[in-house]
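1st attempt posting a full record on here, be nice pls
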Amino acid sequence: MKFRISENSLYAVLMRSPWWVSFMVGAAVFALVRLFMEPVYAAFATTPFVGIGVFAAWRQLRVPHGGVFVLPIPNAVTNLAPYIASILIGTLVTAAALYFLKRPVVEVEKRPVEAVPAAA
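the predicted structure (as tokens):
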């Protein structure tokens, strides 16, 4: 038995539309839920739309990966500004994670080992 998503479901409609539409729907859901609940719950309600937007952006990208090396290829990246922004944001997040999570190397002071007298 094959499971098929209805062509008119919200997920299917958002996957067919440009990727930024999912983020706009997520922002609208956040604003609506924020009126009635705490911001944490509003952010939680937004996560499915953010996930669909990320997946749609990934599906609409014509090259699987390549970073800055893909930019000179003509018509490889259709949404150039978000592609460059995602590279910059990823670089900043990685740099911040390394800065805050990596511990500095501390030199340990080495002391000479004293001889212990033998027990009689």
